[in-house]
Amino acid sequence: MNTHHPKGITTLSAIVFACLLGIISALCLILIKPAEEKAAWLAQKLQSAQTRIGEKTTPSPDPNGHYRAEQTEDLLHRALSQTPLDPALWAHAIDFHARAGHRQKAQAALKIFNQLSAREKPAKNARGERQAP
Amino acid sequence: MSPVPIHETPGQRVFITAFILTMAALVAFPDSPRIFGLFLLFWAFFALIRALWFLETAILPENSTDKPQRSKILPWLILNEKNRQRRQDIAIAARRSGDTALLIWFLMGAALSLWALYLRLFPIFPAGVEELLTQIGIFLNGHGSTRLHPDPAGLGFLHHFGKILWVGLMVWLGRSYACTAHYSAALLRILGVCFALALILSALSGGFNLWVFTRPPHWAGAGWGMYETLEHMGLFPTNPSTFSIRAAELGMKGMALFYGLCLWPVFALLKNLHRRRRKKICTLGAIGVLALMALADLCIPINPYVFPLWLGGWTLTSILWGFSGPSSRSADAGFKC
Q1: Percent of chain A with pLDDT over 90
Q2: Lowest model confidence (mean pLDDT) among A56-70, B40-54, B75-89, B244-258
Q3: Distance CA B197, CA B309 (A)
Q4: In 3D, which of B37, B35, B42 has the Cα closest to residue B18?
Q5: Contact at 8 Å (CB) between B20 and B194?
């Protein structure tokens, strides 16, 4: 059996591996939703959440399905101040504020979030058991 | 046979044309991840095809023993001999383009990527962000063990990882073309103009300052792609240099790995300084391009043209690196590939 290992084959194998990684990364970059579309996606999720809780005055998107910035902001404000939503949506809403540079809003939203969650969770009695609200 | 300049063979013409188109697209659409992804896909396929061609044509056939001659007819023997020499030339070029120095460089790039992946999985945020994420995590999970990441899709990480991969592939491609052809001043001029234009655009867009280093909020490393989040939360000033951003995203260990990656070619190039005059000039040119990129890294604030500048600079460096090495028989014979 020939066990000769030619010089250069290791580097070429590493390059082939790097090429395959590059192809996978490039496909992910092409196919995954970019960050700027996240706000529109979040607004749509919030709208569906608000529809679920009976909100009547939800602003409608433009013909292309996009919300204006102030509409998105309004949706977020009302969603954050009225009712607890899906926890994942809350996390996204707070992250949205943080990413948009609204650190105080993010912290305020988190405060409301904590208050609502405290109200939702029944207090514990002396024995550590949950009491009915 | 007379030596063939690098830009006069079909494969190399494709390489140069695609490189110019890529630079133009990156300058025209600097913030588009999809354009970035499309061109990365093209270059990854390009490098894959070339690497597989090298493996198939040059290296793998040598593992087998020589096949017996099928005919004693003279034309057949001449053709056979020419093919054997051609394969040998390709093998020499492949070995020169993928030498140990480049393998070590690739391993250093892999180490940097693994460190960045670790930071992506276990980021160390400044106190403000950490507190915010911990509180959300406490609510979601009840005990605070949920680890939230402000970049859930991981696009920031993928974008940076793609940049490192792309630069690595261009360095190998540049070296492989420089090792398989004759010295070409025309190619160097084309690449030099691309690099100079990217440098000027970057300096005009970012504004050249002698020292724009901004102390990052901490030196532990929040992970690739976290600069924007830190900036939005008011934890990082606007317009820092790429050096400062890298310090905030990769931490001290990541900085050591990154600048080790940049310094290694300099050490590998220094051994070529004793060669004849033209190779010495190529060596000094490659070191000069790396020094210019380091200066831009420190003195030009973040702007959309940083990546075209790096891509152009590293491709030019790789070609100069290839030209500064020992001459191969294939280069002297005017071997085309």
Answers
A1: 5
A2: A56-70
A3: 8
A4: B42
A5: yes
Distance from CA of A19 to the nearest CA of B (A): 5
Per-residue pLDDT averaged across A12-26, rounded? 89
Q: What is the spatial distance between Cα B104 and Cα A64, in angstroms, rounded to a whole number?
A: 51
Which residues on B lie below 8 Å from A20 (Cβ)?
Answer: 44, 48
CA A22/CA B162 separation, integer angstroms: 6
B213-260 pLDDT per residue, tens: 666 666 677 788 777 767 666 666 677 888 888 888 888 888 899 999
What are the domain boundaries of chain B? Answer: 8-61+74-331
For residue B51, give the H/E element and its range: helix B33-54
Interface pTM (ipTM) of the complex?
0.78
**CA–CA distance, B50 with B63 (Å, rounded to integer):** 20
How far apart, in whole angstroms, are the C-alpha atoms of residue A64 and residue B302?
33
Gap between the Cα atoms of B233 and B235, Å rounded: 5
Interface mutation target, options B38, B41, B100, B131, chain A, most CBs of A under 10 Å: B41
How far out from the chain centre does Cα A104 lie?
Answer: 19
Indicate the residue of A11, A87, A90 with minimum beta-carbon distance to B103. A11
Residue B82 and residue B214 in contact, taking contact as beta carbons nearer than 8 Å: no
Give CA–CA dist B60/B55, Å, rounded. Answer: 6
Whole-number Å distance between alpha carbons of B218 and B28: 34
> How close B311 gets to chain A, by Cα (Å)?
15
Residue type, B184: S
> Is-contact B250 B161, C-beta < 8 A?
no
B249-296 pLDDT, tens digit per residue, is 888 888 899 999 999 988 888 887 777 887 888 889 999 999 999 988
